[in-house]
Amino acid sequence: MIEVIDAGTLLTIQDLGRPGHAHLGVPRSGAADVRSLRRANALVGNAPGAAAFEATLTGAVLRARVSLIVAVAGASAPVFVGDVPATVGRPVRLAPAQVLDVGAATAGARTYIAVRGGIAVPPVLGSRSADTLSGLGPAPLVAGDRVDVGESVAAPQDLFTTAVPEHPLSGPEEAVTLRMLPGPRADWVAPASLESLPHLPFVASERSNRVGVRLTGATVARSRDEELRSEGLVVGAVQVPPSGEPVIFLADHPTTGGYPVIGVLDSASRTAAAQVRPGQQVRLVASR
Amino acid sequence: MGHAATLIELDDADLVPALAAAIFAACEAGEIAARDVVPAATTVLVDGLSRVDTAVLADIVAAWEPDDVETHLGGLIEVPVAFDGPDLGDVAAAWAVTPDQAVAEIAATEFTVAFCGFAPGFAYLTGLPEHRAVARRAEPRTAVPAGAVGLAGPYAGVYPRSSPGGWQLVGTALGQPLWDTDRTPPALLTPGTRVRFLP
Asked: Regarding the domain delimited by B76-198, which CATH topology (the fold level of the hierarchy) does it fall under?
């Protein structure tokens, strides 16, 4: 068992989400940055999709109630076991009552804390993910919450020596460049507007969340302003509402949306989008 | 739509549930592997396709003939409804009929679940004639109770759980819940299902 001492801005449990139910209006949900979830799980010898903690911006403080092995991946953040700095990118042993303190992210937005054995809350529709849009799955965690840890699978011999590659993150002052493939409604924006897109100085809004990164600071001029009838959405879809300020959809996106999708981020950029911080500059460029 | 998804647009919105059913059938038969098939108003989205399956899907759609729409549609679900909605009077006024006549017209309509969206288990039901389309409420309600039956645009729908909402509420669904995560499938009204509201 592990206890939440401080949940920070938003601390949720996430796995790979609940695909296969979108036709019933159920969002995929799951870790916003799937690559970092997999990395954290790999570091503790879990299956890639084991449920782990997703901490947001300000980190989280957790207390082990039993002996545990944990690992942190994703956004860069100072990590302490008690008052002792821990090696990031390695599995860390926690003795009963020891505290894991993941500080505020210094680059990126979401930190993943995997626990060997996975977090064992009851699954809903096959997933332990907290879906902040629909409310499915476990509620966001608050101080005092205690969650069970699953049974460990057989430990790989090299658990404490395996090198799992880290993915570079942009610093908070750097612009994040996201690469976009053409979307189904690219023709709903003026060609000149599409051409100027890479030069527009977008900024991620404070209203960004697990549903999507809301861009502000520049607008995309639409060439058609009639209403689009609702159509299916995917993770990484770049939607342009009437305001012209694009929204990049993340894990908790609604299953359908009624504004034109002008592009879809490529795989690497979907991960990068999940690590964009509010206030950070964002560039949208064409993927090739 | 990106590397791994295909969005298929149909000229005839009424064919959407049938095409979605055909694609679900292709998935079940192992012809393609897809993560999600999402019917909507005039489109079907197929997400999580490999490069090979994107091509196979294109062949399936090109060869698909919408001649047996009826056989693809799901069963009939009868939902008992108390027509006690706060907007029934407004809907009747918009239709230029009495509330009783509006109820009779809704009860006489066989609806089809065109697609789900907005919230888990929220079904967009088609079946009302075009001239019965009503506007959303100017002021959405902050909390619509679970089971509320509403109309908006060309659609009817039932709120599976309490949520904010702007649909014109005409009644309350009784009987089995619209959404139950312990049931398979968790949604009572799935795409293609035919629905009748019983007063």
From this structure: Cyclophilin (2.40.100)
| Cβ neighbours of residue A143 closer than 8 Å, sequence gap 6 or more | A4, A5, A6, A7
**Do A21 and A63 fall into the same domain?**
yes
User: What are the pLDDT digits (tens) for B131-149?
Assistant: 999 998 888 899 999 999 9
CA pair distance A285, A287, nearest whole angstrom? 6
pLDDT for A157 beyond 60: no
pTM: 0.92
The ipTM value here is 0.91
**Residues from chain B contacting residue A25 (CB–CB below 8 Å):** 116-122, 187
Number of Cα atoms under 13 Å in the Cβ half of residue A172:
14
Torsion of CA B87, B93, B96, B98, to 10 degrees: 70
In this structure, the answer to whether residues A23 and A54 fall within a common structural domain is yes
pLDDT value of position A88? 81
Return the structure tokens found at A214: 């809301």
Assess if residue A167 is contained within a domain.
no
Nearest neighbour of B7 by CB, restricted to A26, A28, A232: A232
> Whose CA is closest to A276, among A239, A237, A248?
A248
Using the Cβ of A267 and the Cβ atoms of chain B, whether some distance falls under 8 Å is answered with: yes
Total domains present in chain A: 2
